[in-house]
């Protein structure tokens, strides 16, 4: 097979990928130079997709309980249990919990079944945890969930403000585009994030504001814009409806104090804004995942509307999506708070949807939002739930409660590609879904661009498309007519037709020109953007009077971050891992960047809590506690800690972030405030610590702390605990074993080889003298490493220590880069690339390399 054009399954940048199969389950991956989203570029995650398409851990056939079942048995059972629950307790007793990682076709069929045929609004999605505040802000300001910008605007802007976005890690190809624009045109960059991320490190100005003080910052900027004659009176008069008293009620705030930033920095921000009318404000989870998320979004949008910085090249508020199809899910109506195709729940809209679907019923109104849905489940109100393409036992706030909810639901169906997830443990029925490279349909990216995901691998085992399973259940529930789709093309045509049905220009989402597409045209469909490059360029908004709205935002005591003296817990992402690691966790290359979940903390705060760099600490909140490796860094504000979301029960004994956040949420969007939870921290002092390297995946060790990641030739398990460390030898595989035990110092070292090839190695110590991991890991790919060298943990003739891997594409360590910079007086990231290749492939590590250069603010700490 030659190269197949498809779309990356990770973030909402939506990069075009060309996948060329090189074997049954292997493929060469490269960026699609013709795709407008990425023009050939890919980040580290996209570049290494080929390492994640094997069959390891896949669910290959349906399961009922612990037993393999046929599709017929499983689908009949689901239809029967959902029908019985509806008959006995009504349609609101059942629910779907879907995901921005489903294709639009899957999503469309699920939404149609729930809202139009079962007749309840109870379908929500993990986008509730991700995009719902931005959706609510768009609807309040524009009348419809429309993103006003395109990536082209990043090329044309003179000032880019990133709010609550670690773009360099989470949207790396957008980041590369921003960097290119800065180089070409001198675009100014401001980053607003309590942490000094690698994104912030590269900015012209970084405002490390106190958590959740964005409303004050943007309200202050709006007032400043008014004071300095920056308001666009004509735009306001012609295109915006301004509520009475809006300007009079703008609170007068001491912004620098509230945000806890230097007044000169605040002034510099204001001056940059005044000097650069072409401003794009790009925002993501630091805005959305907040109890003030919707107001934060509207504070940003208000500013752009009032200054007329919208609907023009290089200007606008730009909410970027997280998941590959977060936007598509919003389009079809996958959120409990929209009906379908950007329609709400008015009588007219419900009637219109019912006539279009020719359905027996239609839901009466919105359904339960994710957190409310799980709370209802915990109270026994939900009798059957179907979870697709998401892992809520990990990703919901207060994940322990989410598990209680799942355990309390009499019938749980889980559709996933992976056999065992933390969520599927609670499933009565497991359905094997097609994964990336197998599934076939469309996704919509951050700039409203619809692209095809095309299959290039044969479906393994009995895996089937999610839409097919939902349609089959719909048919078996007696809804034969609505669900006889021949394939994704026919679903797409129906969805496209629905977007245009009785639309007459009232909704910007209108794909009806695609409703007559033939199957072959659908297969060949090139990426296209609905709404055009700039949906509001014509200065008309999809509201009843065609005007946008300024939204008054009441300032609340919760916006005043400065006065709070408790420790705040912030959570987020690592550059090379994706969510619960079911896919990126399979890639040895991607697993090198961060091998353990770290709790990052400021040096002063670490000192006052008695924490040591590299030691362990227990983070406790009202919901639960978890143990993490301590990383002391001045990139954190004082009294704030940051932990990653990626580790699960499958990959960690205690490093579980999901247990910590509470379910406090934005009152309008229902999105949880994942980024700001009161917490405490204390040192965790194990009696011993160490690590285990194995060729095969080890059983979970029985000790207080363990975390597991992939290596090039197997697995690395970090361990720490109490009791006799010698018992850990039971974790080693069988083979020729060499051991060294020093009971007095509490040292255990063991290595197991089979026919000269390493199969296991264990290093434990009570006094912390552990050898570096990298050389030992590499020995698992070598033959006949002398036993003495293994037990010593280093070669007889030592190779230089490369330090932690920075560039995963060329396998270059931090110490190698620092040495090259010093020896060859390198001054730029390009010079480092030319000298030692680092940073010259996917480019994801370029911000990290920049940090090591002599000009960097941070290089002294490196
Ligand atoms: N590598 C990688 N990339 C991903 C993902 C992944 O798992 N891994 N997931 C994808 C998904 S689904 C999503 S939603 C996106 C998320 O992309 P981002 O939103 O960029 O990622 P996060 O790390 O969740 O959070 C962004 C930043 O918000 C900051 N923040 C916290 N509180 C506040 C605050 O009160 N105000 C401000 N201004 N900032 C604050 C945090 O310190 C953090 O640096 O990433 C997508 N891309
Ligand atoms: N504390 C904290 N919690 C958070 C966040 C945070 O920043 N902090 N971020 C939130 C956000 S923004 C998000 S998006 C969520 C993400 O959280 P989740 O959605 O729970 O995370 P994933 O690991 O992406 O789960 C996707 C699952 O779907 C499976 N899958 C992949 N493709 C398919 C498919 O085509 N069909 C089916 N049926 N299954 C498939 C994968 O194997 C995996 O098990 O986490 C949220 N939770
Ligand atoms: S930026 Fe990276 S993860 Fe996001 S779509 Fe592009 S290649 Fe995939
Ligand atoms: Mo997300």
UniProtKB/TrEMBL annotation:
Keyword Lipoprotein attributed: no
Span of the signal peptide: none
Domain 4Fe-4S Mo/W bis-MGD-type positions: 1-57
Annotated Pfam families: Fer2_BFD, Molybdop_Fe4S4, Molybdopterin, Molydop_binding
Gene3D superfamilies: 2.40.40.20, 3.40.50.740, ADC-like domains, BFD-like [2Fe-2S]-binding domain, Dimethylsulfoxide Reductase, domain 2
This protein's UniProt keywords: 4Fe-4S, Iron, Iron-sulfur, Metal-binding, Molybdenum, Nitrate assimilation, Oxidoreductase
Isomerase keyword on record: no
PROSITE patterns: 4FE4S_MOW_BIS_MGD (PS51669), MOLYBDOPTERIN_PROK_1 (PS00551)
InterPro entries attached to this UniProt entry: Asp_de-COase-like_dom_sf, BFD-like_2Fe2S-bd_dom, BFD-like_2Fe2S-bd_dom_sf, CT_Nitrate-R-NapA-like, MoPterin_dinucl-bd_dom, Mopterin_OxRdtase, Mopterin_OxRdtase_4Fe-4S_dom, MopterinOxRdtase_cofactor_BS
Cofactor(s) of this protein: [4Fe-4S] cluster; Mo-bis(molybdopterin guanine dinucleotide)
Family recorded in the similarity comment: Belongs to the prokaryotic molybdopterin-containing oxidoreductase family. NasA/NapA/NarB subfamily.
The protein's name: Molybdopterin-dependent oxidoreductase
Organism for this UniProt entry: Sphingomonas immobilis
């Amino acid at each position: 097979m030659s190269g197949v054009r498809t779309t990356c399954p990770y973030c909402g940048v939506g990069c075009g990928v060309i996948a060329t199969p090189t074997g049954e389950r292997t493929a060469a991956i490269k960026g699609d130079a013709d795709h407008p989203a990425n023009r050939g570029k890919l980040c580290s995650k996209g570049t290494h997709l080929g390492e994640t398409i094997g069959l390891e851990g896949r669910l290959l056939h349906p399961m009922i309980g612990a037993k393999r079942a046929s599709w017929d048995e499983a689908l009949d059972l689901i239809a029967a249990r959902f029908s019985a629950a509806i008959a006995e307790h009504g349609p609101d007793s059942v629910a779907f919990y879907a995901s921005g990682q489903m294709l639009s076709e899957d999503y469309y069929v699920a939404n149609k079944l729930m809202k139009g045929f079962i007749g309840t609004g109870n379908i929500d999605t993990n986008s509730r945890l991700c995009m719902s505040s931005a959706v609510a802000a768009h609807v309040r300001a524009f009348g419809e969930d429309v993103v006003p910008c395109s990536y082209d605007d990043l090329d044309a802007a003179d000032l880019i403000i990133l709010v609550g976005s670690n773009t360099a890690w989470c949207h790396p190809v957008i980041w590369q585009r921003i960097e290119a624009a800065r180089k070409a045109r001198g675009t100014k960059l401001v980053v607003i994030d309590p942490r000094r991320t690698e994104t912030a490190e590269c900015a012209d100005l970084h405002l490390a504001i106190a958590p959740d003080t964005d409303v004050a910052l943007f309200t202050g900027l709006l007032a400043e814009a008014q004071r300095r004659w920056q308001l666009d009176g004509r735009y306001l008069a012609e295109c915006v409806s301004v509520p009475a008293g809006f300007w009079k009620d703008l609170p007068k705030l001491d912004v620098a104090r509230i945000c806890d930033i230097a007044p000169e920095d605040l002034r510099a921000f204001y001056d940059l804004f005044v000097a650069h009318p072409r401003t794009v404000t790009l925002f993501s989870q630091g805005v959305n995942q907040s109890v003030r998320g919707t107001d934060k979004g509207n504070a940003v949008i208000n500013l752009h509307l009032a200054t007329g910085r919208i609907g023009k090249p290089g200007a606008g508020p730009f909410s970027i999506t997280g998941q590959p199809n977060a936007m598509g899910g919003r389009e079809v109506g996958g959120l409990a708070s929209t009906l379908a195709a950007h329609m709400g729940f008015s009588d007219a809209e419900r009637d219109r949807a019912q006539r279009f679907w020719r359905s027996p019923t239609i839901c009466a109104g919105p359904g339960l939002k994710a957190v409310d849905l799980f709370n209802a489940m915990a109270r026994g109100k939900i009798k059957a739930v179907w979870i697709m393409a998401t892992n809520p036992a990990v990703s919901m706030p207060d994940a322990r409660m989410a598990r209680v909810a799942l355990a309390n639901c009499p019938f749980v169906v889980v559709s996933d590609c992976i056999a065992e997830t933390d969520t599927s443990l609670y499933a009565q029925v497991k359905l094997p879904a097609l994964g990336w490279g197998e599934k076939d349909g469309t996704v919509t990216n951050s700039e409203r661009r619809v692209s095809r995901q095309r299959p290039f691998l044969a479906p393994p085992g009995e895996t089937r498309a999610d839409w097919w399973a939902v349609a089959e259940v719909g048919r078996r529930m007696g809804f034969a007519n609505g669900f006889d789709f021949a394939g994704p093309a026919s679903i797409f045509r129906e969805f496209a037709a629905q977007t245009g049905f009785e639309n007459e220009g009232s909704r910007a989402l209108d794909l009806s020109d695609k409703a007559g597409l033939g199957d072959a045209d659908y297969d060949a469909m090139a990426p296209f953007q609905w709404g055009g490059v700039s949906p509001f360029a014509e200065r008309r908004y999809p509201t009843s009077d065609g005007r946008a709205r300024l939204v008054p935002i009441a300032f609340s005591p919760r916006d005043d971050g400065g006065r709070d003296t408790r420790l705040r817990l912030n959570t987020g992402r690592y550059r090379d891992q994706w969510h619960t690691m079911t896919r990126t966790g399979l890639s040895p290359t991607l697993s090198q960047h961060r091998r353990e979940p770290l709790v990052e903390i400021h040096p002063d705060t670490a000192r006052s809590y008695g924490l040591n760099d590299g030691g362990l600490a227990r983070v406790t909140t009202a919901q639960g506690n978890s143990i993490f490796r301590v990383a002391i860094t001045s990139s954190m504000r004082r009294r704030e800690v940051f932990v990653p979301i990626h580790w699960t029960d499958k990959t960690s004994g205690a490093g579980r972030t999901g247990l910590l956040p509470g379910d406090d949420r934005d009152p309008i969007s229902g999105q949880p405030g994942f980024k700001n939870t009161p917490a405490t921290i204390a040192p965790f002092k194990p009696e011993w610590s160490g690590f285990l390297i194995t060729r095969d995946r080890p059983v979970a060790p029985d000790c207080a702390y363990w975390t597991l990641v992939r290596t090039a030739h197997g697995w690395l398990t970090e361990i720490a605990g109490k009791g006799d460390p010698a018992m850990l030898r039971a974790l080693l595989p069988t083979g020729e074993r060499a051991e060294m035990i020093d009971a007095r110092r509490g040292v255990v070292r063991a290595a197991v080889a089979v026919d000269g090839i390493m199969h296991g190695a264990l290093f434990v110590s009570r006094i912390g003298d552990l050898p570096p991991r990298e050389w030992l890991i590499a020995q698992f790919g070598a033959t006949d490493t002398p036993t003495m060298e293994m037990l010593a943990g280093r070669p007889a003739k030592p190779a230089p220590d490369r330090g932690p891997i920075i560039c995963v594409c060329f396998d270059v360590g931090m110490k190698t880069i620092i040495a090259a910079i010093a020896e060859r007086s390198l001054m730029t990231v390009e010079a480092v690339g030319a000298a030692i290749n680092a940073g010259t492939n996917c480019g994801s590590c370029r911000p990290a390399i920049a940090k090591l250069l002599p000009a960097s603010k941070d290089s002294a700490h490196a």
